[in-house]
Amino acid sequence: MDHIGSLEVITGSMFCGKTDELIRRLRRAKIAKQKVQVFKPKIDNRYAAAKVTSHAGSEFDAAPVDKAADIRAQLADDTTVVAIDEAQFLDPEIVSVVNYLADSGLRVIVAGLDTDFRGEAFGSMPILTAQAEQVDKLHAICMVCGKDASRTQRLVDGKPAHYNDPVVIVGASELYEARCREHHEVPA
Ligand SMILES: [Zn+2]
């Protein structure tokens, strides 16, 4: 195989359409007769386990993995396109795995959140974004003002989550909204 490998990153806040864009590219790759493999971290059990599913409802078969090294281990010889969804949840080895794949001539497409609910860089996404040939930062709609949203607002019992709130709060109702910079609130 003499393809030139590359890394594409699709990022942004929750509800910005990352997974829809990922699935759109994967469908086009399949039409082009590319052999596609899709991976996602096991931590994301939002919808059906062996699929990536967008909030808008489109889906694509995916293999859940415990750790980044599993992607390399499960790679088929004839695969030409590798996609990874929710990459912010994978361990730091995802950086070397992704670069190994792209250096080997594969087209690698990574989707994931660029910031967490605090507005801080999330996992390895900033590094992957820096190393990518192509980066698409998508925007959701701010649920307060209707402008472009770049942040994910975490709400616990209807109020903005505090900076130090634990990841899981037992007994609390919790939800996430897209917000712009002005309306993103993280009480200290
Ligand atoms: Zn706003």
Describe the structure.
- This protein is an alpha/beta fold and 188 residues long.
- It has 2 domains: 6-138, P-loop containing nucleotide triphosphate hydrolases (Rossmann fold, 3-Layer(aba) Sandwich), CATH 3.40.50.300; 139-188, Wheat Germ Agglutinin (Isolectin 2), domain 1.
- It has helices spanning 18-31, 69-73, 94-103, 125-131, and strands at residues 6-12, 36-41, 51-53, 59-61, 63-65, 81-84, 107-113, 134-137, 140-141, 148-149, 151-156, 159-160, 174-179.
- It has a 6-stranded parallel β-sheet with strand order 5-2-6-7-1-8, with helices on both faces.
- A hairpin with a 2-residue loop joins β11 (151-156) and β12.
- The radius of gyration is 17 Å and the shape is elongated.
- Residues 142, 144-145, 147, 179-180, 182-183 line the site of zinc ion.
Structural class determined from secondary elements? alpha/beta
Sheet with most strands: strand arrangement: 5-2-6-7-1-8
Number of helices in the DSSP assignment = 4
Helical fraction: 10-25%
Hetero groups in this structure are: zinc ion
> What is the CATH C level class of the largest domain, in words?
Alpha Beta
* Annotated CATH topology of the largest domain: Rossmann fold
Distance between the termini: 53 Å
What radius of gyration results from the CA coordinates? 17 Å
Average residue-wise pLDDT: 93
Counted up, domains total: 2
Count of individual beta strands: 13
Give the DSSP E fraction (strand runs of 2 or more residues): 25-35%
Q: How do the SSEs run, as a string of H and E?
A: EHEEEEHEHEHEEEEEE
Low-confidence stretches: none
Shape: elongated
Specify the CATH architecture of the largest domain. Answer: 3-Layer(aba) Sandwich
Largest β-sheet summary: 6 strands, parallel
* Name of the CATH homologous superfamily of the largest domain: P-loop containing nucleotide triphosphate hydrolases
